[in-house]
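In keeping with the milestone schedule agreed at the kick-off meeting, the structural modelling team has produced records for the first pair of proteins. Each record is given below as a sequence line and a structure-token line. The laboratory manager (R.T.) confirmed that both were archived under the project's standard naming scheme.
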Amino acid sequence: MPALPIYTTPAMRRLEELAAPASGTLMERAGAAAAEFARALCGDTAKAILVVAGPGNNGGDAFEVAAHLKRWFFRVSVVFAGERHKLPKDALLALGKWEAAGGTLLGEIPGESRFDLAVDGLFGTGLKRPLAGAHGALVQRLNALGAPILALDVPSGVDADTGAVLGRAVRARHTITFIAHKPGLLTLDGPDHCGELKLDTLGLDPVGLLEPEGMLLDADILGLVITPRPRNFHKGQAGSVAVLGGAAGMVGAAVIAGRAALKCGAGRVYLGLLTPRPPYIDDAQPELMLRKPAALLEKELVDVLVAGPGMGKADSARKLLRAALAAPVTIILDADALNLIAASRALATSLVKRKAASLLTPHPAEAARLLGVTTGKVQADRVAAARTIARRYRCIAVLKGNGSVIAEPGGKFWINPSGNPGMASAGMGDALAGIAAALCAQGIEPLQALLAATYVHGAAADALVAAGSGPRGITASEVIDSARALINAVR
């Protein structure tokens, strides 16, 4: 699989144990790597740097950083928010290095000083309780300095496993994380607090030490699944897609999904609209073929079904979805199809019993309905929610949002880093469903297709922003065209 491994906190602890015998002191390595990064951010001229050290091993990393920077003739001030006699052994040794270099400890951030860089070494991956009291006030003061902040491993106050803010959290401009990625840095509020994220493995091979729980997607996924077409090629080889949905007043959702499937490479795309009299023919995309929904299922015209965009919740939609779930082809379930399944034990059972591949694309509220919990509960642990949906419904699921999480029934997960806030507009989910359907129709294995579709969907929006067309005002139709360009750019 492409990209970099992701480990939750318990797995990171295990990695550190496995690495310890051959690694020397990981704290020394982390401190040296972070100090080099801080020096690169500042340049070599003497500048004032504030280092905030916490009561645990993250504080030890901070002392190591401070000692290096002081030896390199930076003006370093260290605030220690802990008690010396309670420091872990390695952190106490690191404090000794700082003091041996002539450093002293401050109890609070000097009110009159100005700093060119602040280093956050207050709390790391072990934090699980809300920051309050003196520690919360220290984070607030750090954020108010106006200086760029470099966070060590995890911005203090961010849950390393979920990305949730624990009361208050440091808003870093840069974060250097060690050994491997943590899920909380990549989803929910984590990316907003990390700033630019840099990984330093400290010379370790984490995958060689411990099988990863998750992976971080990157552009390599496209090169793995998009292959050149031979010149001797016809539309039948590109597969066929049917979109079932488009009830009265919601035809546009089905049209967007159909356009996405067509423009991202499917050979034929049919729209099975639930509205009895479609209010318009899509002049912009006359290649989309209209068929009665039931006829698409009876004649088995297609390789992939997309069910849900604009489907509604009427009895006719429920009946159509029941027939779609019985079809022996790959199905992508979105929007109202997910809501109907969440409300019907019979439909949920039909989904679980399917032999062909099922791909689910819920946003957090739809995921909450599928799981019978609140949206807040889903967002509190997005990785766990995605994994539970995949396991419960025997499907491949993508939980959409900041750092979309893709999961398969066995528990493996992937986090997607592409995308931006411009995607918070109508029709984006329909476009994703259509892109995934196009890739499946062209013969790409369903899991790989969903991974690639999720990545290119976000990357297409990023390309629009880079070209000056966003983030405000990006439309799903623009994302479809941008995704087509990215897919065709793969060589």
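The second protein of the pair:
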Amino acid sequence: MERRKFFLMASTGAVGITLAPSCQRSKKEIDLSSSKEPAGIVSGEEPPYRKVIKPSFSSGKIISANDTIVVALIGAGSWGSHLILQAAETGENFKVKYVCDVDDTRGGHAISELEKKQGFKPTRVRDMRKVFDDQEVDAVFIGTPEHWHALATIWACQAGKDVYVEKCISHNIYEGQKMIEAAMKYERIVQCGTHNRSETGAFSARDYIDSGELGDLVAVHVKSMLPGPIPFNEKEDSDAPDTIDWDMWLGPAPKVPYNISRNKSWHYYWDYGGGNAMSNEVIHQLDMARLILGNPGLPSSVYSTGGRYFFNDNRDFPDYQMVTYDFGKYVMTVEAGDCAPYLGKSGDDIRFGSDFPKWSHNGTRVEILGTKRMMYIGRMGGGWQVFDKGGEIVAQQPGLYNLKGHIQNFFDCVRSRKQPNAGIVEGHKSSIFIQLANLSYRAGCKQLLFSPEYETILNDPKAQEMINGQYRKGFEIPGKV
């Protein structure tokens, strides 16, 4: 019998709470315990994707090392182009047949470099559906803006393609659920772009914590404090240039006039992403922290606050954001922003060497506090160190930035049909952390109570509605994948 549960939604007033773009203008506190009458009842049930998760796939052809994997790049911006060129340097037996982007001004460098490496020029296309229609294509790399990740992945799975999809893998919680359903139904390999899961240092840090040498877990602090602040001047709307299919670029997002700021700086708009410091950056550290902690489940509540403190411009996202997640036995915090000129990422001398960051000035670190000792971990090759009382280093291991290894793991799984290091299920769970933080912020910096079992917000109907997203006709996330 399918388990069901009914959740009472705490009252937020007769018309509900208005989602605020800035918490500085909406700091009203709501006492949930004082609500005498619920505003509504939400029927909760375990998300359907959990019933179809498969540890391994039985269908799909095994591709031998002698056979060429045919791939396509979808989304040829700076990172997508870098990703496919890194793939070309793995030594893997594959060829890039297509470079797909709705903007003709993008992808030229990737095409010319790939032509040098493979002896022929990939075909440039605008519409990703032409790629999916080609039965010769085995796999796709998806490097589009975030609002396209889910639908592109689902279409790819339906077309029988394996997928490497960048982070955050989804734009809302519902999308991640449907992506898992599609991957499992069509038995497609889906590797998420959270490539710390292919770095040996993360696993040795996990083993150290499992040994008990850190003591009992007390708190986890995840940071993504990037250099800034950076001014932003939103341009006026204009006619779309002939070089771009603006309607296709918008895809699932609301129909709006062309604006070069939205096109080139999409990380600043809720319609297209979850924020540069959050869904583009801190997702790496957050996912790594979850791996090191043994992939814990989801929090029971989230509280996020922050604001636009440096520039009063039209960006949707805060330039500083602080988040607290409650796990019952310990607390996890996230601190993210683009306003710290004295902090930064680890340099190549650390990521590709044997040195460690200067932790106090490292803006992309994770701190794990135990009852005995504390651990610092740096993302993407930063390594880890454990400190005892008095600052003595009692254990450590350098890291190594391993993007190529992460791509190689994807190719290995395309051939073998084994599950990849950064599979879609854990990618979905890590993305939920980002999405919950942003929902709390947009709800007026309100603490949201969350059901990990049902992936449901318990005390805010408006925030719960946003879990499902809204889509333009022709670009809907299908209810049945």
